[in-house]
Amino acid sequence: MALPNALISGGSSGIGLALAQSLAAQGWNLSILARDPARLAAARAAIQSARRETAQQVKTFSADVTDAGAAADAVHAAMAEFGPPRLLVTSAGIVIPGLFETLPASAFERTMAVNYFGTLNVVRAALPRMQAVRGGRIVLISSGAGLVGLYGYTAYAPSKFAVRGFAESLRAELKPDGIAVSVVYPPDTDTPQLQEEQALRPPALAALASGSRVLSADEVARAILKGVGRGKFIIAPGRDMKALAMLHSLIAPLLNRVWADRVVARLHRRPPPPRA
Ligand SMILES: NC(=O)c1ccc[n+]([C@@H]2O[C@H](COP(=O)([O-])OP(=O)(O)OC[C@H]3O[C@@H](n4cnc5c(N)ncnc54)[C@H](OP(=O)(O)O)[C@@H]3O)[C@@H](O)[C@H]2O)c1
């Protein structure tokens, strides 16, 4: 019998790589898609060493998800190897933190191109063959910043809100086709992306994030696979994200306008002007 197969964009690092390794340990064939061939090769070796059986295959495809043609070619090449994916995960993503007035327009365009349009490009390429077999699950990686916008995330949060809106609409559209959809809201997760981002965070964003626990990529991958196993639409790794995903329309205004505004005001407080 053919082994199950997963196709993971952004599978060469962080959450995508941890997921690929977990699936390899469970006996899956893997296709991973990202840009940098050297990182893909290193990831392939790491995934191969996590395999349960040597018959399992790991294929890599180098493409930029913002290039619709290149992303489609890579997805089609992966499906030529393994057939339509039982699990399609869109984890390729970037974050450019910074204040709205300091970020160039290109930061907003690039973030939306990778996180939102890159997600669409991968899903669009795989969908017809998934529909033909009436099966599989699409797992879209959003973020806690897709539930509540935070100071310093004017470029990132809208791209992750867009992924959430896409997931909600897509779930409804694909249900009659027998294809399931999940959306994932990871909290801060210890990956190369977070390490790079932390160096660039404005102080108020760093202060806001300082209270929440950082999960490991393995913890997030485990939560994703548990949610997938249970057929969940919303997958919120960790306690904070579970509460936020369940209650965000109630608590996001409080988080933003009470707690976050206070932290920001404290950091921006200026000494009173000297008395004349
Ligand atoms: N880490 C966190 O704290 C956190 C929290 C919430 C949500 N998330 C989301 O989780 C997802 C994974 O993040 P991560 O922390 O695991 O990041 P990561 O370690 O930086 O990995 C990102 C992956 O995406 C690939 N990628 C980036 N731009 C791409 C492009 N244009 N085309 C194709 N592949 C591209 C990267 O490979 P190449 O650079 O070689 O292309 C890499 O494989 C992202 O969507 C991120 O926004 C992360």
**Low-confidence runs (pLDDT<50, min 5 residues)?**
none
Largest sheet: 7 strands, parallel
The CATH topology label is Rossmann fold
| CATH C-level class | Alpha Beta
Report the CATH architecture: 3-Layer(aba) Sandwich
- Tell me the total number of β-strands: 9
Order of neighbouring strands in the sheet with most strands: 3-2-1-4-5-6-9
C-alpha Rg (nearest Å)? 20 Å
In the CATH hierarchy, what is the superfamily?
Answer: NAD(P)-binding Rossmann-like Domain
Which small compounds were modeled alongside the protein?
A: NADP nicotinamide-adenine-dinucleotide phosphate
What is the molecular shape? Answer: elongated
Mean pLDDT: 95
Distance between the termini: 86 Å
Instruction: Please tell me the total number of domains.
Output: 1
Question: Could you say which structural class the secondary elements and strand pairing correspond to?
Answer: alpha/beta
What is the ordering of alpha helices and beta strands? EHEHEHEHEHEEHHEHEH
Number of helices: 9
